[in-house]
Amino acid sequence: MLSGGAIELGGGHSLQQALGISDSAEHIFADHIRSDIVQGRYNDRDLVRVFADESAATFEFLVENGVEMIPARADTLDRVQVGHASVPRVFKCREWPVEAETAAPHRNRNGSGLVRSLARSATAKGAVVRLRHRLQRLLRESQRVAGLVAEGPEGDVTLQANSGIVLATGGSTGNVNLRRVFDPRLTEVYQEAGAAYSSQTGDSELAAMAVGASLWATANQTSGAGVTIAKTMHIGCRWGYRPLVAEPASVLFDKARATGLTVKSWRDMILVTAAGERFWNEEEDSADFINAALAYHGDPHELNGGGPIWAIFDAAMAARESWITAPPYVDPQGYFIRGETLAELAANIRNPYQHVPMEPARLEQTIARYNRFVAQGRDEDFGKAGLTYPIAKPPFFAAWATPILHDTLSGLRIDRTANVMDINGRPIAGLYCAGEAQGGLALHGLARCLVFGRIAGRSAATRR
Questions:
Q1: Are 273 and 402 a contacting pair, CB within 8 Å?
Q2: Phi/psi at 53 (nearest 5 deg)?
Q3: Which residues contact 102 (CB under 8 A, 6 or more apart)?
Q4: Would you say 453 and 446 are in contact if contact means Cβ atoms under 8 Å apart?
Q5: What integer pLDDT is reported at residue 25 of this predicted model?
Q6: pTM value > 0.90
Q7: Of all residues in the chain, what percent carry a pLDDT higher than 90?
Q8: Backbone φ and ψ of 221, nearest 5°
Q9: Collapsing DSSP states into helix, strand and coil, what is residue 348?
Q10: Mean per-residue pLDDT for 436-458?
Q11: Strands 144-152 vs 155-160: parallel, antiparallel or unpaired
């Protein structure tokens, strides 16, 4: 509902044909197993083959079930969202036209058109949708998963499965314990894309592992592929992910609490660790800045993770950017700090994740060194180019700029029919999985969810 509605499906479907784009399942397969592209290096070749073969049919399935596409020309279809594609494959759904039925009006959330259209088609075919229910556990009888228990508004509900259960609760970026299975540095300090109004809690993965399921292709989660970890574009708020509903008029704004200050350029501010030390060329967007933050970290209580990262700037920069440094644009409850002096700024930083106070003298030294680089026109530490303005005009500000965790690229092991497999490589009867809860195919966005969701539903419906 909150996604951008961009879908990367190809293989020669009807939209590609209408636009004169030549594509095939073989081209998709080749694009997603390239060893020179990190996003293809660790993919399960069987799953890539299925994804390639089912891609065009999945597009037609969407059309048949009422999903409308934005009219496009061949030159407006993107080649890729994240990774590589040899031909254009990324199209967008029309946004759902009923504003009252979208969670983020005025935000151009095209995913609402996908979800609402499919929901309307499914309910017309007899499906029953139960909102506000959360998976608790799976029920296994003998060698088969036969049902589940979900927590609902009126307590637990037990559902029996006549044919099968399809797990599609999303990934694990919002589950601190589970995401640290892949990377122990990813402590609770990091942001999660879509939080706090939409969280990837890893419910499917945990419930399936409790009945013997295996994780798969875990290297994808730490390979640096896709958008697994990213710099925030919106600072001074706890949840700075391209704020989908971070507007005061949204019904979900109370969860976001602030819009954040949108960063156009990092040139005239610096990023510092919880210890007040600069650690990176702020204009570089590579996820390697997390490793740099760890290397420069001076807080002994944060050695297992990166700890907070603060953007430091002054009143002059705020004026140049036309930022309003007050609610609802910033969150003064620990995520946007001000001080009339740098020493006062450091002393004022109180945040649940700032376990050790920032030393005022260290922040003052960091700013003095940076200002010297500005004066001489050369960044001796990290090589940031085009230094223009010192950080010198009070008041001074510290804005929460800790990285965001986005894609879950690893999850449960499935076979070619989307059947979940156990730790011994055997299928678990009656249990299927799709989307970010599945492992084996590192692909950003909705396409893998749709392709394997269709496969999983088809498999569950035909196997009794």
A1: no
A2: -70, -30
A3: 1, 95, 96, 109, 112
A4: no
A5: 97
A6: yes
A7: 70
A8: -75, -25
A9: helix
A10: 95
A11: antiparallel
